[in-house]
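Fold this: DUF1365 family protein
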Amino acid sequence: MEVLYLLCSILSTFLTSLPLSFLLPFRRLLRRRRSDAEVDGAPPVSLYQGTVWHERRRPVHHSFRYSVRYALIDLDRASHVPPDHLSADQCRSAAQTNGPVFLLTIPPSVGYEQNPLSLYYCYEVGGSPENLKKCIAEVTNTPWGERVSFLFNPNTDLIAKPLHVSPFMDMLGNWRIKTKAPKDNLFVSISVHHPKLGDYFTATLKAKRILSLEADHALFFWLMPHKVAVWIYWHALKLWWKGVPFIQHPRYSNLAYRQEALIRDTQLQCCQAFAQDTQIHLPLEGRDSDYVNDENGRNRCFTWRDAKWPWS
């Protein structure tokens, strides 16, 4: 069934992206004029260009890197925000902060969006890098079209794996995630700690901010989501060719896998990111959310939902 969905997604994306790509030059002419908000002061969108690097060390070694382009969007000031993401007020409510919120994501391009990971940076009043308090991660898997959102401590945090993100990884293990307040340089790191394989997988994003006042955003991100999807599928094929066992989505064999992730998360003692919080909840109507408190005060909310077609 996943193969059929994948083929439908590829066909739909091709039929949509091809004509929209031909329209890009005309759209660029229509967007020559910039608003005063984009000219005066800091722009509401900062552009970053860098590299994503993946390394798997067990059961076989496999690594690769590819170039990426990201947008850092001030959710309070930007006139256009990519659809199907949280608002600034939703983030502040979840993170219990009162300052600005910035979304790091790959915007849609010619009708397609592909974001394995988007991050929300939640600041206290003032918005300086020293006032970054919490982050929210949005992880989207491919090709199942699911998304999970959760809070984490940007300095470093350990989260029980809540989502089936790859057919070559089981649901056991934890994600260690950390990031820094985006300035001229951007850094995100995620590693997987598995009870049998140990510290066997690492992914990093390193990028630099570029001057964006003269950049045409539509051209800057042209086919960027498509390239990310190609890299995901191509290296999945390579892992299969190397003999890494294929693992079926747990929803076909274990309907309680989400609740089990919540329970495993409460058992993590080494990094209680929000031990002082009495409640953490992502206020997203119509979405499957849950959180568990343990006796030590650890409190994590995971919010699961379906991503917007075609699996943005």
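The first helix runs from residue 2 to 30. Residues 2-21+39-273+287-306 form one domain.
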